[in-house]
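As a point of orientation, let us examine one representative protein, giving the amino acid sequence and backbone structure tokens.
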Amino acid sequence: MVYSASLIRAGVVSLLAATVCLAQHLVQTPQVLGVQITPESLKAHHTDGYRVDLGFVIRQNQKFDLIVETDSPLKNGETILMATDLGPDVASPQFMTHTVEEGSHDKEYIVTVMAEDEEPLGKYEDLIFYVAQVEEGHAKPSEQYMYSYPFPVYLIFNPWHPNSVFYMEDEADLEEYVLSERGPVYTGTAHTHEAIDWWYGNQDELALEAAFWMLKTLDSNKMHDPLAIVQHISHNIGMVNMTDKNIPIRGRLDGILEGRWAEDFPAPSHEPGYWNSTIDIISRWKDAGHKPVKYGQCWVFAAIQNTYLRTLGVPTRQTSAMASMVGASPKVFSDHKDHHVVNYYYNRNGTLVYKEGHVWNFHSWNDIFMKRAVKKYSGWNVMDGTPGGTGPAPVQAIHDMDDDADFNVTSSISGVHATLREFLVDDCTPPKKGEKPADMHAIPKPEYCHISKEIKHKTDGVPLVLTKKQGVMSVEKEGELDITAEYLNPTMDAYIPTKHNPWVNDTEETEPSAANGVEEKHFPLYEGGQQLLSVDLELKDHKLSFGQAISGEVTIQAPYTDTVDVTLIVDLKTYDDRLIEEMHRVVHSLPISEDHPLSLPFLVQPSLAESKTPSTVYAELRVLAITKNADEVVLHKETIILSREPNRSVPEVDQARDIDGDQDQGESAHYYRALMRMNNRFMLG
């Protein structure tokens, strides 16, 4: 086919005209060139302290202002919109434009935007800005008009807003439980507790990145659900004990921390006592390609969870209970006969031969402040981040011993309320092959031992629950807040006995329990004024450094004449009631009378095993006194902390330097990494 020259010229003219028309149309639609959040908005959102290299952090249900620059002025009917480009199947926030006002020049605009309180949390790296006609709705124009914001925007909870599940009214509380990055982590015993000066670093970008990395495995359609988010964090922080098939017993393989409850921690790993900075742990986890850092125990998991929840805007405090009952048969344990009870069985030599549950020297977890459907349960709720984590369990429900409250509150009731019983046993037989008598989940078998006497029935729960005092940063006494009364009423007995006691023959008489209306066996028990024999164990020190001898004196008194068998045992243990070795044992059989009480001084030399143990272990001293004629039995126990200073690599706060190199005594000085990461950003793909 042949075209004439005139027809070709006419076609070219028409094409040029169309091109000019299109170009004029393109010029008529302004393009977004850049976006920046205002400092005033960051301050209003309480995110101006977040150390984010590039990008910014905003909270739900609160307006924020963006400075938007365009290549030409907006015309009547045009507005600037903000959106995400995640696709139709992924939940994403709807950033609603409220107002667009002129800025300092004709191509700069102040755009006021807000994400509602039901919008999904997230780290958004796909935000787009574009100009559209108001009458055209929110339909996207062609991609050449879109501006992609090149940095991440983090959307987190807003506990300052009354609509939030995590709303707190008091500004000082919000400063303490949301923004504060440093606090004491309490360990030790009820008699001698101590505090680790811990750097949470919850306003560091590393904390944000790690928290949202963990939430990547949560269904995106649940990223607006506060309950789903806090439970996902609690259940997935770390893992415990790998099996032969490289599968964790609890937790996930890419969790930040591996838990290990043992007497040794093989190199090149670190023992739990090494750590005092969540940011240090996150950095090592990131450098290892998201493989768990080794090793941690309950207080380290709780410190990490404190960081993760605070960085997401959840009011959180770290709590420690001294002499906490672990594995104390909550009602969900179907393999136990009784509930909310720890049983220890000692023979006449003072040796622990069997136990159900454990009394740890301490256990650490977190409380979060949240609204609950049952109004009286709004307030502090327990979140236990040790792998297999539980919660949120209302602290008020724990106090009231309401086993039917949501989210496994029964385990928390056991931890603080459980009754401690100690028995004297005779004629013990070894367990059957494959059974572990020291296993806290073992089912008691009547053939193990014959119970001679119940020698303790302690019902008042844990002696001490501690957290940080608001507004006071100190690892000394003035920084402590005793919250024991929030958790328990010491006059209430949580013990729920079985309807059939496996230790009792069916032919033996039983009595009904007034509290529970079920039958239980009452073993001989001296109560109150009935106990005539008294034993006192006085220690020179309740905390010693490794290599120091333990010294003290045992005093025994009785208002009658008799012979008393006295056994003093010193066991070296881990904080979780795990026996390392018996350090010392001495036995006496001595006469006693009202006029001649016994005074027995003792000196225990340090154990060689101390050099192979963690930086903190415990010496449990037990005195068992049994009179021959009066048939009285008294077991008295004390615990000493044995420790050495761990070789921590994290600098002290007063040794840190701020970004300008000047001395900085504030929280942000400790482990401040923002400048170091400017050219090596924490990329989580």
